[in-house]
Amino acid sequence: MKKSPEDCLHCGKCIVSCPSYRLFLNENFSPRGRNLLFSRNFDSIALDFCLFCENCKEVCPQGLSFPEFYLRKVLKEKGYPWPYLSDSLTLLYFHPEGKKLYKKFSPESIKFFKKGDFYIYLSCGLKHLYPQALFNFLEKIKAFGFKAHIPMDQDCCGIIHVTLKARETLKKFAIKKLGYFEEKKPVVTFCATCYWMLKRVYPLLFEGEKEEEEFISLSERTYFVSDFMIEYLNIEPSFKKNKAILYHLPCHLKNDLTFQKRTLKKLLENVSETCCGSAKLTLWVRGFQKEYSKFWKRDLFGKSFIATACTGCYLNFSLQIRRPPEIKHWIELIE
User: Which residues form the 4Fe-4S ferredoxin-type domain (predicted)?
Assistant: First the structure.
């Protein structure tokens, strides 16, 4: 049976876990407040300040996720006819510092990966922000006799179109994934948000439609890279350990989709679980991320590197701090 905002017990356990409440200290900007607004069909700017982190679900006795309620509504609305962007990171060229982050990716580097034991989802971030993470991973698994299949011409997961409520454009992105990952073998992602999109959002997007079962199947065989190494390849990743390195655990890897929270703390020292403030475009234009950054910048004192595993977090850190610390993906620091 589907859960609804009316199932909220109003216990308040979710309030302190919510990043937007932490900044505004206003009940409307908490999951409990949003559930009340939503259940009574009240429109409020507070709804858009949901970061989709699902921290509320992690602590709720009922297992309620306000992002899920909100997404179900948003993904069924017609939305706005935003243009299709195969690579959302091209928007970095409109940011004075962003274009410096964008790395060119040569398709030649993956031309020998047309067949393999599992798929790799070649996301925007993996191609243009932290490609070394891909090459480190490929080198690591080669030593164990595994080979990846990397389909050519892959596009964005479409997260920006969730934010913009561009339902039809988002569906184009999702349908393409069925073509890329046609064979029934595992799909490995390197970005926490891409993982969340394939695992959680696509099945919601096609709920009740003819493609629903295909997206449920895709969801069930989608893994985050470090989970995949442990569970499927039987390789326990070893990361560089140094007091000058801060490992950041993205929100979308803390919930029940992965077991990162327990494995990462076992494998690493200096782990931060602080939300980055999300890379939600509608909040960038309101200056939310800049204001929220005070909650995570204090963790960076004395650090030379901050390693994360999400394109949105990577962008937030990269665009809001001076170097050092340098920004890395976890797999760039694998040993």
Answer: 1-28
DSSP H/E element including 48 = helix 45-48
Distance of alpha carbon 10 from alpha carbon 35, whole angstroms: 9
Please indicate, yes or no, if residue 82 is contained in any of the structural domains: no
Q: How many CB atoms lie within 10 A of CB 141?
A: 20
Among 7-21, 104-118, 132-146, 250-264, whose mean pLDDT is lowest?
Answer: 250-264
Contact, 148 vs 56, CB < 8 A?
no
Note if the bond before 96 is cis, omega within 30 degrees: no
- CA-based nearest residue to 75, from 154, 174, 143, 147: 174
pLDDT of residue 209: 92
Q: Which residues pair with 119 in a beta bridge?
A: 149, 187
Do 304 and 328 share a structural domain? yes
CA-to-CA distance for 105 and 158, rounded, in angstroms?
A: 19
DSSP letter at 195 equals: H
Q: Which residue segment(s) compose the domain that 302 sits in?
A: 245-333
- 158 is a domain residue: yes
Beta bridge partners of 187: 119, 222
Sign, CA dihedral 199-221-231-115, equals negative
What is the rounded distance in angstroms from the CA atom of residue 334 to the CA atom of residue 242?
12
How many folded domains does the chain comprise? Answer: 3
Examine the pLDDT at 177 and tell me if it is beyond 60. Answer: yes
194 vs 163: which has the higher pLDDT: 194
Is 142 found in the same domain as 38? no
- Domain-located, residue 199: yes
Residues 255 and 207 in one domain: no
Residue whose tokens read 């993996």 = 126
Name every residue whose Cβ is closer than 8 Å to that of residue 172 and which is 6 or more positions away in sequence.
84, 158
Domain-embedded: residue 238: no
206, 96: one domain: yes
